[in-house]
Design goal:
The chain is built from 15 helices and no strands. By secondary structure, the chain is an all-alpha fold.
Length: 327
Amino acid sequence: MLAYIIRRILYAFPILIGVNALTFALFFMVNTPDDMARMQLGAKHITQESIDTWKQERGYDKALLWNSQASNLAEKASDTIFFDKSLSLFIFDFGQADDGRDIGQDIKTRMWPSLAIAVPTLIIGLMVNITFALLMVFFRATYVDLGGVILCVIIMSISSLFYIIGGQFLVGKLMQIVPISGYSEGMGAIKFIILPIIIGVIAGIGSGSRWYRTLFLEEASKDYVRTARAKGFSELRVLFRHVLKNAMIPILTGVVVVLPTLFMGSLILESFFGIPGLGSYTIDAIQAQDFAIVRAMVFLGSVLYIFGLVLTDLSYTLVDPRVRLDG
């Protein structure tokens, strides 16, 4: 297993280099260092001297990918913006944002509001979706099952923006139960995160419940389930003792793969509710065209996603003894 983990980590490096190179190329196809300097300086009348000073302070005064003026081949490749900005990422040194803020400190501060929304949404959503899916399977081929499927399709067909705006208007403005937006530290944050969590759970019921229903129906049609019914076991016992248990591998796959990415936050929810998490942090960086933050968040998201895939493979060995990872 150790050999497998090492091999997967080694495989990750070319992927991360490619993701970083693609992010770099896409960003600088739209912006030049001079454009970035003008946006960050924000003044109407900017001199070329101030632009050059800004670029020099932040390391944007070099060639992008290839320094043809360097004396040797190694310096031609290394004395560039791409090399300087990319190398530190692999030791998780994110440096400073283009406006001077410490990106690492921002991530440590903003990850907690993101987790405060993402973790409850995942746990509650998982319980609601599995329960609803089991209910539809228990009453399969009846009007309850048909109504549940139709409800899931309707929920899936409606944009998440509708739930956000509708929830803010109904619960926040008309009923005035919770604030429409904002955030507070400590226990005071609860009143600000309740509505985003509820909306996140409701918006995910459609796709989540339909997927779990498909898994459960597939398990319910297998021979071992028919054998259990033939032995006289009740339908509830068959569902919980056999169907749910044997459907845990694909369920675990979907859950484990998203665990490392939870603290990245929800872009839409955090932006609309004014939550100072990593989702809104990324959106603000894109709007401000802050390449340092965008690059750091894309890289970090890629690392966490790859880590999630490794965790998923390792978790298979826990829920299914038949699965073994060859070294």
